C-alpha cells in the first residue's frame, strides 16, 4: 500500500525526489485510524494517546482506512499526505513562535533583573494548604482552610487549624491566600482580641 501511494506521488511529481514525499505518506498512515487495528491509529497504539492535530485534519484523520482495498487506501493516504503538506508549515511556524517566546523568557529570567513574585502573608490571613497525595492510589483530599498564627523566618508559616488549635509548619509555596475571608468571623476559628481591634 505504501508503494502504491509512493508510485502515485512519483507519477504526479518529480521521480528523483521520491524520498521527500515518504515522510508525508508515513505521517498519513501513522495518524489514520485503521479498521484492521480495531479503529485505532498506529500512533495511538504506540503512545496511548490520540495525536494533537488541527480541527480540519482531525475530522479527516478520524475516518478509518480499509486496508483490504489497496487502491482506495493508497488514494486516501495520498490525499492525507497532501493535507499534511499544507498543514505542517503552520504547525512549524507555531513551534518557532513558542520556541522564540521560551528563549525570551529564559533570557529575562537569567538576566539578573528578574524578580519572582513574592507571596506575602500577614498574621491572621486565612490560607489554603496544598496537600499532595503520597501515591496514586490515594484519593484527592479536600481543601484545608487555616489561619496564619505566626510568620517564621526563611519563608515558613505557622498556621493554626480549626478549633483544635493544631499548627502545621510549612513553606509559603505550599499555601494559597483565601480571598474574601480576611479577618471575618467563622465558627471554627477561635477569635483573639486582635480580631476585634480593627
SSE topology:
Elements: H1 2-12, H2 18-31, H3 42-47, H4 55-61, H5 70-110, E1 126-129, E2 144-152, E3 156-160, E4 170-171, E5 175-177, H6 193-196
Helix pairs in contact: 1-2, 1-5, 2-5
Question: Rg to the nearest angstrom?
Answer: 29 Å
Shape: elongated
Fraction in helix: 40-55%
Structural class per helix/strand content? alpha+beta
Largest sheet report: 5 strands, antiparallel
Q: Mean pLDDT score, rounded?
A: 76
The parts where pLDDT drops under 50 for at least 5 residues are none
What sequence of helices (H) and strands (E) makes up the elements?
HHHHHEEEEEH
E-strand count: 5
Number of domains: 2
Q: Name the beta content range.
A: 5-15%
Strand order of the largest sheet: 4-3-2-1-5
| Helical stretch tally | 6
GO molecular function: nucleic acid binding
Organism: Klebsormidium nitens
Protein name: Integrase catalytic domain-containing protein
Characterise this structure.
- The chain has 198 residues and is α+β, with helices and mostly antiparallel strands.
- The chain has two domains: 2-93, no CATH class; 126-196, SH3 type barrels.
- Helices cover 42% and strands 12% of the residues.
- It has a five-stranded antiparallel beta sheet with strand order 4-3-2-1-5, with no helix packed on it.
- It is elongated and about 80 Å long.
- 15% of the residues are buried.
- The mean pLDDT is 76.
Amino acid at each position: 500500500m505504501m508503494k502504491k501511494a509512493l508510485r502515485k506521488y512519483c507519477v504526479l511529481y518529480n521521480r528523483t525526489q521520491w524520498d521527500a514525499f515518504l515522510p508525508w505518506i508515513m505521517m498519513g498512515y501513522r495518524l489514520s485510524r485503521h479498521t484492521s487495528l480495531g479503529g485505532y491509529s498506529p500512533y495511538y497504539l504506540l503512545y496511548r494517546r490520540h495525536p494533537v492535530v488541527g480541527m480540519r485534519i482531525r475530522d479527516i484523520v478520524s475516518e478509518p482506512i480499509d486496508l483490504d482495498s489497496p487502491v482506495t487506501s493508497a488514494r486516501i493516504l495520498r490525499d492525507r499526505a497532501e493535507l499534511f503538506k499544507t498543514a505542517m508549515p503552520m504547525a512549524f511556524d507555531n513551534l518557532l513562535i513558542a520556541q522564540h517566546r521560551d528563549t525570551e523568557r529564559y533570557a529575562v529570567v537569567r538576566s539578573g533583573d528578574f524578580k519572582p513574585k513574592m507571596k506575602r502573608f500577614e498574621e491572621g490571613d486565612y490560607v489554603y494548604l496544598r496537600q499532595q497525595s503520597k501515591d496514586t492510589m490515594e484519593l484527592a483530599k479536600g481543601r484545608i482552610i487555616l489561619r496564619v498564627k505566626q510568620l517564621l523566618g526563611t519563608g515558613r508559616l505557622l498556621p493554626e487549624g480549626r478549633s483544635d488549635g493544631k499548627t502545621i509548619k510549612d513553606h509559603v509555596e505550599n499555601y494559597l491566600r483565601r480571598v474574601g475571608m480576611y479577618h471575618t468571623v467563622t465558627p471554627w476559628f477561635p477569635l483573639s482580641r486582635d480580631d476585634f481591634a480593627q
